[in-house]
Inverse folding.
């Protein structure tokens, strides 16, 4: 209860930011859903009855303190210490056994059975839920980009969540020839082969067919709910609360940060596996015009099933380029104003953001919207005023992504590649010093 302390000792409170209730509605179908959402972005508000009565406090402090209870307390404490000294033993195992016996005598058997029953029920529920990711070779992208991204997310989920992670991949080895399956299994990941999704009129090697490999999440029917995660993402906080919500949820497709998006971005997508739905989505892909999986999934559930995918609030999931850019914060002062500072980092961040850059005259213009959730130092290092700077040192989440990747790839799995060793070397990453392999990870061309 808040009544145990004066309001002046709590100068702030968590409140829903203006518009957040409408932007991230939570179904009231279960108390678990409401509680989960409250933990994520809902208000923590003092009730009117929780007031500190200073007059009553002064009255309590002014009453005389009886001496007799304190005297009896002192006698009792002394007796306890004297008994412990008289009957102590050097046999630690006997002491531990005695503690366990006394503890079991104090603990009601019915309560213990109830706690075990609840724990087992929670475990059974969790076993029906899973995250799922995919690492596939994609034309025009570095061969192992998806593997590094999945490895970083797998390490983050190992720290943040107790749910399963399923990895769908057609990779068998890392660049150092170590086994993809064995390495990911060391992180508790269930590795499964990636299958082609055959759509009438499209070849399996067609880029659009490869986009539809995401639909395989609907075939994981041993789970009741799964959360799909793209590989170029960062999970910054626990997102298990999403499993408690009803129906499907996705981020907002708002890469330009307008804060008005009404279309889903399936970089994160909570769904219900169902073979019938999978086949219906494939059939839908053969009948309608679409350019990416986002559009296909959106039109199927909105137009065919007449039940659109629900949208997460921006403080729950957003693009990396929108960090600190008008995302409402639930952290509020008592007067309702926002607390100064960076208090609106999303739980899920899709891509780090990046820039259009033309480093050297005559070079083709590149677009890179995932500069820092990557081990590619050549993209991160930019020439400036006669020196090389790593632009990701200025990004608030790049060090967190790097820590997850390096603690998995370098510290736990001991993957040996030039890219990993350079990226995970503090000297190389932060000081641009070290061996020749580090110095090779710089942009080519004349220094401006």
């Amino acid at each position: 209860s808040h009544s145990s302390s004066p309001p002046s000792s709590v100068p702030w409170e968590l409140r829903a930011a203006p518009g957040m209730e409408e932007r991230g509605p939570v179904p009231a179908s279960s108390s678990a859903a409401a509680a989960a959402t409250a933990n994520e972005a809902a208000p923590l508000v003092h009730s009117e009855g929780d007031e500190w009565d200073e007059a009553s406090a002064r009255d309590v402090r002014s009453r005389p303190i009886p001496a007799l209870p304190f005297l009896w307390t002192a006698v009792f404490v002394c007796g306890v210490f004297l008994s412990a000294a008289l009957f102590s033993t050097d046999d630690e195992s006997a002491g531990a056994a005695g503690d366990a016996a006394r503890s079991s005598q104090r603990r009601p058997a019915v309560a213990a059975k109830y706690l075990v029953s609840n724990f087992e029920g929670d475990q059974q529920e969790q076993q029906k839920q899973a995250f799922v990711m995919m690492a596939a070779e994609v034309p025009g992208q570095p061969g192992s980009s998806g593997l590094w991204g999945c490895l970083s997310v797998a390490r983050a989920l190992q720290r943040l969540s107790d749910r399963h992670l399923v990895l769908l991949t057609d990779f068998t080895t890392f660049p150092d020839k170590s086994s993809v399956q064995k390495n990911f299994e060391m992180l508790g990941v269930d590795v499964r082969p990636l299958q082609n999704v055959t759509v009438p009129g499209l070849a399996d090697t067609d880029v659009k067919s490869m986009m539809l490999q995401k639909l395989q999440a609907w075939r994981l029917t041993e789970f009741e709910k799964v959360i799909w995660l793209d590989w170029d993402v960062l999970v910054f906080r626990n997102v298990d609360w999403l499993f408690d919500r009803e129906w499907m949820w996705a981020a907002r497709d708002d890469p330009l940060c307008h804060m008005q998006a009404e279309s889903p971005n399936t970089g994160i997508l909570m769904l219900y596996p169902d073979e019938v739905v999978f086949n219906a989505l494939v059939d839908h892909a053969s009948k309608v015009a679409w350019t990416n999986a986002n559009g296909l999934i959106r039109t199927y559930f909105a137009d065919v099933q007449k039940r659109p995918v629900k949208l997460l609030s921006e403080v729950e999931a957003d693009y990396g380029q929108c960090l600190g850019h008008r995302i409402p914060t639930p952290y509020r002062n008592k007067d309702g104003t926002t607390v100064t500072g960076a208090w609106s980092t999303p739980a899920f961040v899709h891509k780090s953001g990046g820039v259009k850059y033309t480093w050297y005259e005559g070079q083709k213009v590149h677009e890179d919207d995932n500069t820092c959730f990557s081990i590619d130092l050549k993209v991160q290092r930019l020439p400036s005023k006669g020196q090389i700077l790593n632009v990701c040192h200025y990004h608030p989440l790049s060090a967190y992504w790097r820590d997850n990747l390096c603690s998995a790839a370098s510290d736990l799995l001991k993957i040996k590649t030039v890219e990993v060793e350079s990226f995970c070397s503090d000297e190389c990453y932060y000081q641009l010093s070290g061996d020749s392999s580090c110095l090779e990870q710089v942009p080519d061309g004349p220094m401006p």
Remarks:
- Residues 1-65, 85-119, 357-366 have pLDDT under 50 and may be disordered.
- The CA atoms of residues 352 and 397 lie 8 Å apart.
